[in-house]
Amino acid sequence: xxxIIQDLLAIFDMRLVRASRYKIVNLSNKExxxxxxxxxxxxxxALVEVDCNVGRTNRWFDLSRNSFDPxxxxxxxxxxxxxxxxxxxxxxxxxxxxxxxxxxxKNVVEELGLGDFETKLNDYSSWAKVxxxxxxxxxxxxxxxxxxxxxxxxxxxxxxxxxxxxxIMRIDREYGIHSHAEQYEKIxxxxxxxxxxxxEKYGFMTAEILIKDGEYRxxxxxxxxxxxxxxAAMGIKKIPVIVDKIIRYEDLEYWPNVVNSTFSKKxxxxxxxxxxxxxxxxxxxQWIGHCTQSDKK
Length: 297
Description:
Layout: H1 2-10, E1 25-26, H2 37-40, E2 46-51, H3 70-80, H4 85-102, H5 108-111, H6 138-154, H7 165-194, E3 206-212, E4 215-220, H8 225-233, E5 238-248, H9 256-259, H10 265-276, H11 285-296
Parallel strand pairs: 1-2, 3-5
Antiparallel strand pairs: 2-5, 3-4
Helix pairs in contact: 3-4, 3-8, 4-7, 6-7, 7-8
């Protein structure tokens, strides 16, 4: 049974470990850069504080106060307007619905910002996005990700009956907005009441650290993307995260989905730089224009 569970978790770059062997090393009170983490720990997970100003969302926007990331933008509007409860949910949901209609990618190639390349990925749906340094390959993502989404949405009041992967993802995109907004509201209420909790009891946020030319950026890892985005929108400048993975630009040719030829080295470089430079794919251009005009009013 243990092997079955470990094999399943490995698909998503996760594993079960004994807590005593992999005790978390708390570096969050030290004034160190995440780049230094490997020098402080061996195989243990490390808890560090990361600066939201160099954070990136899973949609590759920055996490600065002027970010146009759809979720960040919606949350900041609700927070700045002093909303809470159902009013907060409604406001956030309304903005995310506008973005849903404006930001549509045809396939994973557009989702990754690789529209200028001849690639074998054209036939994959946009939700099948994997990154060059992921250990999960794209066919594993197609097979397993929709069912993770189905389980997650069920935990947040959206029950999806279908077992067809494309249908699950269609329903999630079409009807999952309110579920996401409710999830944000619960986290928002918790942070306002108890602060940003950093303890294993409440589950740690995780981050991937991207390193290039002696500088770092970070993006959400395997857990906590809602909390990281909300924390930044609330104006929290630094947040505690477990380092999921350190991705060095100079190691590009050794990244798993480059080694297995899912991506060429040039494609992998473009994806890394887009995230590092907070340059989201082109299909967000209409949304960015909408936000720019709205903020001028």
